[in-house]
Design brief:
The chain is α/β, with parallel strands linked by helices. The protein has six helices and eight strands; from the N terminus they run αβββααβαβααβββ. It has one domain: NADP-dependent oxidoreductase domain (TIM Barrel, Alpha-Beta Barrel), CATH 3.20.20.
């Protein structure tokens, strides 16, 4: 069973630029909640994920764990078990981070992300679920949900 899972983790899809992305990735959103319940850390989970064959790691600035992801990736690369080109690291930039935090421009936010991760990323996604809102008095009503690519 484990061999089959590892084999499936090696499957890739070619992106429009020819880069191959593993079709199965390890997502780090809310991972800390699940792990705290089991007495484990995200760092432990990433170590196990990389050891068992995950080569696609998904993180984002708003997850506040890019530093942990970067540390785990560096540990794994330093072990000699993979090269950087064997990994596919995805991060996301949420436009609200640009407007509401101390980094008022996307390049500054990206620099913070790059520094936290300690390594380059293969894909940068725009991370947001845009919602059209109608304001009536002091109440906001969600009128339509739009998924932005």
């Amino acid at each position: 069973m484990l061999e089959r899972r590892i084999k499936n983790m090696e499957r890739t899809i070619a992106l429009h630029n020819g880069v191959k992305m593993p079709i199965i990735g390890f997502g780090t959103w809310l991972a800390w909640i699940l792990l705290v319940c089991k007495g484990k850390s995200l760092s432990d989970a990433l170590d196990i994920a990389l050891e068992t064959g995950y080569r696609h790691i998904d993180t984002a600035y708003v997850y506040e764990n890019e530093d942990v992801v970067g540390d785990a990736v560096q540990r794994f690369l330093n072990s000699g078990k993979a090269k950087r080109e064997d990994l596919f690291i995805v991060t996301k930039l949420h436009l609200m981070c640009v407007f509401v935090n101390i980094h008022h421009n996307p390049l500054q936010t990206l620099n913070v992300q790059f520094t936290a991760q300690q390594c380059s990323f293969n894909a940068l996604l725009r991370h947001e679920l845009a919602t059209l809102i109608k304001r009536t008095s002091a109440t906001l009503f969600i009128t339509q949900r739009c998924y932005v690519n």
